[in-house]
Automatic annotation (TrEMBL):
Pathway: Purine metabolism; 7-cyano-7-deazaguanine biosynthesis. Its cofactor is Mg(2+); [4Fe-4S] cluster; S-adenosyl-L-methionine. [4Fe-4S] cluster binds at C38, C42, C45. Substrate binds at L19, Q20, G21, R34, T95. It is an enzyme of class 4 (lyase). S-adenosyl-L-methionine binds at W44, C45, D46, G97, S146, P147, K148. Keywords: 4Fe-4S, Iron, Iron-sulfur, Lyase, Magnesium, Metal-binding, Queuosine biosynthesis, S-adenosyl-L-methionine. It comes from the Bacteria. Its EC number is 4.3.99.3. The keyword Lyase applies. Catalyzes the complex heterocyclic radical-mediated conversion of 6-carboxy-5,6,7,8-tetrahydropterin (CPH4) to 7-carboxy-7-deazaguanine (CDG), a step common to the biosynthetic pathways of all 7-deazapurine-containing compounds. It comes from Croceicoccus mobilis. This is 7-carboxy-7-deazaguanine synthase. Mg(2+) binds at T47.
Length: 248
């Protein structure tokens, strides 16, 4: 079974070395692999090329659709593992899209990588709606969980799955990263934090935005809100350094 990745350009898989730009590992050198496909459709998604292919009418503020052939590539798991290992990773970040949709192929790929780099730290970025089978879960050192709030445009019945949220709330490997577009969004975070007993130390608020000016503007009002409720904030470091580009 091949693993399906996003591309940086037609025919080139989005596997790259950079700094982690978000969440609890911000600033750490990492190797990234971006998988294609997603079960949600956030209208502000900055990686819509992983899911909004021609014919997909789910709303997105950019309105652009992407040719599947140019923006998606299927690789043999062994080939994908070799491409990852060529970058000599100490820390691997599996992102998307929603990577857990490809659990079987991901298990094989990660096992191949770990057979060469047994001490590799593996992070998976997920929207928190999909269960990882045990064969995959045991390979993961850290979950970066980003539940999608009302402003994402996804129905709560799809985006906020109670048993999944409770699982991650109880798992010390899981850190929650909430995208915040306006001050009122924090109220939704506080409700989820209280309902599922998510420890404040594992909650981070991140301003929504794909340019430095927007991120800085929102951080000005987000920082004091986070301080008021004893929550953490995370910036989007890669946006400030590289801009809104693929493969960085």
């Amino acid at each position: 079974m091949p693993i399906v990745l996003a591309t940086t350009e037609p025919g080139e898989p989005e596997i790259f070395a950079s700094l982690q730009g978000e969440g609890p590992s911000t600033g750490r050198p990492s190797v990234f692999v971006r998988l294609s496909r997603c079960n949600l459709a956030c209208h502000w998604c900055d990686t819509a090329y992983t899911w909004r292919f021609t014919g997909d009418e789910r709303p997105h503020r950019g309105g652009e659709s992407y040719a599947r052939k140019a923006n998606q590539i299927a690789m043999d798991e062994r080939e994908a593992a070799q491409a990852i290992l060529a970058l000599v990773p100490d820390r691997l970040v599996v992102t998307g899209g929603e990577p857990l949709l490809q659990a079987a192929a991901l298990v094989k790929t990660l096992n191949l990588v770990r057979s060469v780099q047994p001490r590799l730290h593996i992070e998976v970025e997920t929207n928190g709606t999909v269960e990882a089978p045990r064969s995959l879960d045991t390979l993961i050192d850290q979950y970066n969980v980003s539940p999608k709030l009302q402003h994402s445009g996804n129905p709560a019945s799809l985006a906020l799955v109670p048993e999944r949220l409770q699982y991650y709330a109880n798992d010390p490997r899981a850190f929650f990263k909430f995208v915040i577009a306006k001050p009122e969004d924090v109220n939704d975070v506080l409700v989820l934090k209280r309902e599922y007993g998510i420890p404040a130390a594992r909650v981070q608020l991140m301003p929504e935005g794909t340019d430095s000016q927007t991120l800085r503007h929102r951080m000005h009002w987000l920082a004091p809100i986070a301080q008021k409720y004893g929550l953490r904030v995370t910036d989007r470091l890669h946006i400030h350094i590289y801009g809104d580009l693929r493969g960085v």
